[in-house]
Amino acid sequence: MAARPTKKPAAPGRTASRSVGRGGADLRRRLLDAARRQLVQHGYVHLTMRRVAARVGVTATAIYLHFKDKDDLIHALIDEGMEALQLALEASDERAAPPRARLEGLCRAMIEFGVSNPEYYEIMFLLHPQRMSRYPTDKYRRARHNLERFADAVDPFVKKGDPLMATHALWCLLHGIISLRLAGRLDSSLDPDEFTDEAVTRGLRMLGA
Amino acid sequence: MAARPTKKPAAPGRTASRSVGRGGADLRRRLLDAARRQLVQHGYVHLTMRRVAARVGVTATAIYLHFKDKDDLIHALIDEGMEALQLALEASDERAAPPRARLEGLCRAMIEFGVSNPEYYEIMFLLHPQRMSRYPTDKYRRARHNLERFADAVDPFVKKGDPLMATHALWCLLHGIISLRLAGRLDSSLDPDEFTDEAVTRGLRMLGA
Amino acid sequence: MAARPTKKPAAPGRTASRSVGRGGADLRRRLLDAARRQLVQHGYVHLTMRRVAARVGVTATAIYLHFKDKDDLIHALIDEGMEALQLALEASDERAAPPRARLEGLCRAMIEFGVSNPEYYEIMFLLHPQRMSRYPTDKYRRARHNLERFADAVDPFVKKGDPLMATHALWCLLHGIISLRLAGRLDSSLDPDEFTDEAVTRGLRMLGA
Amino acid sequence: MAARPTKKPAAPGRTASRSVGRGGADLRRRLLDAARRQLVQHGYVHLTMRRVAARVGVTATAIYLHFKDKDDLIHALIDEGMEALQLALEASDERAAPPRARLEGLCRAMIEFGVSNPEYYEIMFLLHPQRMSRYPTDKYRRARHNLERFADAVDPFVKKGDPLMATHALWCLLHGIISLRLAGRLDSSLDPDEFTDEAVTRGLRMLGA
DNA sequence: CATGAATGAGCTTTCATTCAT
DNA sequence: CATGAATGAAAGCTCATTCAT
User: Fold this and answer.
1) Nearest to residue D172, comparing CAs of C161, C39, C132, C110?
2) Minimal Cβ distance to A172: which of B147, B173, B207
3) Is residue C113 a part of any domain in this protein?
C-alpha cells in the first residue's frame, strides 16, 4: 500500500496514506523513521533490529515482513537519503539566478543538508560500501545525478582545465566541511556558521569565481 | 614507521625474531599491526579481539597481557597514527622553501599519508569520538600540533581574514579528498594522482596563493 | 508449592506438557527449578546461565527471554523462597493451640522448611546481600513478616526482657540448626531428627517456657 | 606464632626466618594474609589468585611455588582459622572458674572470634565442604577439638539427657548468632552487643543453668 | 625463588534471524 | 500482518593454571 513503493517510481514519502489509525498501516515508514533516529543517536553499529522495532512498538520479527534483513533496511535508508538530498538541492537550485549566486546557494544547501541530516549523511557518504553487504551500485546513480547538478553550476566558472575535476574538488571541500563538523572535529573556537560562510566563499574562489 | 617503542627500544617492525609461539616478545607490535589491518578491512565494530588474536596466531586472552581492553588497543593505534602523521609532515616540511612550495609540499604529504595509511586515517579522523569510549582528549593535542603546522604554512597567504579559518578550510578540503578517496566515492573516471595535483593547486588558490 | 504463578495460573510443577523443544511455555518454571537445583549443588557463583539452560534443554539465550539477567533470575528465586516459607509457616501456625504447642509447631515447621528446601534456604539466608547485586530491600519485608509471626508466638513466654530480643535469639538457634545441618557440619553421630526434637525443646526452655 | 609449617611438624616455612628484608622470605605468610583480607572484602568467589598476588606485590605464578592450587591456599587458610579459634578459646578458657562463668566466657569468646574474624569464620563454617575440592576430613578434627572443649564446659549443667546434644544445641545457637550477624541479617534495631549478652544468657538457660 | 608470556575454558550478554502459530 | 519462543554465533573479558627461563 503506497507508503514508499518497494522500489521505484512515483510517490515520495507516503502518497495516499490513509490508514494511520493506530497499529498496522504504514509500519514500513515508521520503521524507517525509527531506524534513522537510532542511526544518528547511537551510530550504525548500535542500530539494532530489536531497538528499532521496540521504538515503533512492534516485535523485531515484524521488521522482516517489510525488509529482507538489516542490510535491506539500511539500503532503504540510503535510498531515502539520496532522494532527500536530491529534493533539497532541487529546491534550492535557482537556475535563473546569476551563476555565482546559484553555485553559492547549492553549496549552502548541501552543507545545510549534511549538517541537519547527519543520519542520512552518515550512511550515504561515510559508510564504507565494502563494509555493508553490497549496496547495489546502480543505487549510486542518484548520487551521480546530484554531482551533475553541481557540475552544471560549476561549469561557468571553469575557463581552463577539466570542469569535472573542478566540481570534484568543490565536492571534496563540501564533504570535508560536513564530515568534520559531524564528527565534532572542527576546532571548537570556530563559529560553525561563520566558518561555513567563509569556507563557501573560499570554495568559490577555488573555482576562480 | 613511527613504531611506538614500548619495550624494545631498537628495531621497529619486528626485529629478527620471526617467532610465533612463545617468546615472541614483540607480540604487542604484531597485535597492533593486525588490529590496524582489521580496522580498515572491517571497521571499528568488527575489529574483534578474537580475530586480531587469531590473525597473529595467539589466543584472545594474550591480547589482554598487552592492552587493558579493546579501547586501550584502539587508543594505542590512534597514538601511533598521530605520531606517524606528525613524523610524515615533519619530514616533508621544508621550512626554508618558498611559502608556496612549502604549503604545497605539506598538502601533498598529508594526502599521501591519508591515502597510504587508511587504517590510521580512519581511526584518527573518521571515528566519532562519542562512539568510542572516551579517548583521552589530551591525546588530541598532537592532532592540534599538526594543524598548527599547517596554520604556520598558510599564514603568509592570508592577507585579510582569519588565518585560522583559512587553515581550517584547507584542512577540510584535504580531509574531503582523502576520505572520499578512501571510501571509493570518487568518480572512477578520475585519475587519482592527476586529481590530487589539481585539487592541491585549487586548494592553494583558495587561499589566494 | 508456592509456585509463583506468572503466566499459567493453574498447575504449579510442570502441568502435563512434558514438551522440551519449542512450545514449552512453562520454560520459566523449569528454568527456576533447574536454577534452584544448581544453586544447592554448586553454589551461587557456579550457578551459570549456560548450565541452567543446558539442564533444561534450551540455549542460554532462551533464559533472557524470561529473565533480564542472572540477578533477575536469582531474585525470582528468592521471591519464590520467601513466599514458600511464608506459606509453610502459615500452614502450620495453629493460632488456636496452646502457646507452647503453637511455638513448637512453628519451630519445627521452620526447621523442616530449611532442611527440605536447601536451595531456597541458602539464597534466602546464607547469601550475603552485599555480594549479590542489590536485592531490592523491600523484598525483605516478607522476611520480616515471618519473623513477626515468630515474635507473636514468642510473646506469651517473655515475662521480662525485650520480646524482640528473645525472638531473635530463638531465630538464631533455628538458623544455626538449619545451616549447620545443611552444611553437613553436625556431628555425624547425632540422629538428625532426635537432635531437632531436643534442640527445639531447649529452644523453648531458652525462652522460659 | 611460627608461621604455619607447610604441613606437619618441623621446619616452619622458612626455618630460620632471617631474611624478611624486603622481597622474598615469608612470602607464604604474606600471601595467606592477603588472601584472608581479600576473602572478607570480596568474598570467596572474588578471591582470585591474581589479586592476591598483586596485593602482595608478586606475580600470580609465584603463588604456585607455595600452594598447589587455589584450593590448597584456601585449605591453608582454614587450617589457620582452626588454629586461631583453638587459640582464642584456649586463651579465654578459665578452667578454674565456676562452671557458669567458664561456659559464659567460652561462648563470648566464640562469638567474639566469629564476629572479628569474618574471613576465617566464613571459610571455616560457611563454606560448603562439598563445594571445595575435598577438604581432607581429618583437618576437621581440630574443629572437633574445639567442640569438645565446649562439651567439657557444658557437662556440669546437663543433669539429664545427652550432653553431646546439649553442646550441639548451644553450638547451633552460637553459630546462628555469628552467621546472622556476619550476613547483616540481624534486625538493625538491635544493638549487637546487647543482643549478644542476652543471647548468651538465654543460651545458658537453655542448658538449665 | 620468581617472572613473563601464554593458554583454554568459561562466563554473561547481545544480536540477527527463523519458525510455528 | 504480526507475535512469542527460540536459536546459534559471536563478542568482550576473567580466571586458574602452566611452561620456559
Assistant:
1) C110
2) B173
3) yes
Among D34, D51, D67, residue at a domain's last position = D67
CA angle A73, A79, A83 (to 5 degrees): 145
Contacts of A208 in chain B (CB under 8 A): 205
CATH of the domain at D81: 1.10.357.10
D170 and D128 in one domain? yes
| pTM for this entry | 0.79
Supply B71's cell numbers: 579501547
DSSP A4: S
Q: Which residue is nearest to nucleotide F19 (CA to C1')?
A: B22
Q: Domain count of chain B? A: 2
Point out the residues of chain C with pLDDT beneath 50: 1-23
Specify the pLDDT at position A35. 93
Instruction: Provide, in whole angstroms, the distance separating residue B38's CA from nucleotide F21's C1'.
Output: 33
Return the closest-CA partner of residue A111 out of A125, A98, A97.
A125
From residue A15, give the alpha-carbon distance in Å to each of A9, A18, A36, A148, D76: 12, 9, 20, 28, 78
Over residues A78-123, the pLDDT tens digits come to 888 999 999 999 999 999 999 999 999 999 999 999 999 988 898 8
Q: DSSP state, A124?
A: I
Cα(A2)–Cα(A14) distance, integer angstroms: 6
CATH number of the domain to which A60 belongs: 1.10.10.60
Do chains D and B have 3 or more beta-carbon pairs under 8 angstroms?
no
Buried b (16+ CB within 10 A) or exposed e, A108-121: ebbbebbbebbbbb
Model confidence at B130, in pLDDT bands (50, 70, 90)? low
Contact in structure between B67 and B76 (CB atoms under 8 Å): yes
Q: Is the pLDDT of residue B135 over 80?
A: no
- Domain identity same for A111 and A53: no
Least confident of A34-48, A194-208, D7-21, D53-67: D7-21
Q: Are residues B184 and B110 located together in one domain of the fold?
A: yes
Q: What is the pLDDT of residue C139?
A: 67
Cα(B114)–Cα(B129) distance, rounded to whole angstroms? Answer: 19
- For residues B28 and B52, give the distance between their C-alpha atoms in angstroms, rounded to a whole number: 11
Q: Is A129 exposed, middle or buried (0-12, 13-18, 19+ CB in 10 A)?
A: middle
* Contact partners, residue C121, CB within 8 Å, separation at least 6: C81, C113, C114, C178, C179, C182
SS3 label, residue A118: helix
> What is the model's pLDDT at position D126?
82
Chains in touch with B (≥3 Cβ pairs < 8 A): A
CA geometry: angle C123, C125, C131, nearest 5 deg: 65
Select from D168, D191, D207 the residue whose CB has the most chain C CBs within 10 Å, as the one to mutate to test that interface: D168
Between residue 59 and residue 78 of chain D, the positions with Cβ below 7 Å from nucleic chain F are 60-61, 64, 69-71
Q: B40 with B101, same domain?
A: no
For residue D164, give the chain C residue with the closest CA.
C190
pLDDT tens figures, C76-97: 998 899 999 999 999 999 999 9
Whether residue A20 lies inside any domain: the answer is: no
pLDDT, position A184: 82
d(C-alpha D122, C-alpha D127), whole Å: 6
In this structure, the answer to whether residues A99 and A172 fall within a common structural domain is: yes
Question: Within window 29-68 on A, which residues have Cβ closer than 7 Å to strand F?
Answer: 53, 57-62, 65
* C140 and C57 within one domain: no
* Residues B50 and B118 occupy one common structural domain: no
Full residue range of the structural domain in which residue D74 is found:
70-206
User: Hey, which bits of D59-140 come out as E strands?
Assistant: none
pLDDT at D9 over 80: no
Nearest nt (C1') from B21 Cα = E6
pLDDT at B137 over 50: yes
Nearest CA in chain B to A205: B206
